[in-house]
Design goal:
single chain, 162 residues, Rossmann fold, five-stranded parallel sheet, alpha/beta
Length: 162
Amino acid sequence: MTGDSRPLAVFDLDNTLADTAHRQHFLERRPRDWDAFFGAAPDDPPLVEGVAMCRSAAEECQVVYLTGRPERCRRDTLEWLAAQGLPEGPLHMRRHRDRRPARVTKVEALRRLAAGREVRMLVDDDGLVCDAAEAAGFPVVRAHWATPSGALEEAQEREGRT
């Protein structure tokens, strides 16, 4: 990271900052159409509550983005963050072929981040991620402002895809 010594505010993307409702149908069919699901991400509308919280957190913290999106989506994701006027910050994405549950990969990333800095908060919509982060001692804000998606929850937990 940079020479910034402020605490970290860690934000999830899908259904925390970005409204994925318009692309959920790609996960509701069998087989799931992952290419189309991620390909539609640049068209996600922002979630006002999450965006406002992220901007507010940036007044005291360095913002870090932690997503289960695969690394191949990096360019589109960075462009989306910039288009929303969100603070710049490191973007941590799922490594290629890493299919572990989000509750595992995200807590692992939080521990790496916390090795050198205070993690002031994790903001995430995934209840299992939030539970695991709290159990590991991290302060959590549960993002309840998006419409929950059973298909997305299953993808995060069982398929390790987002």
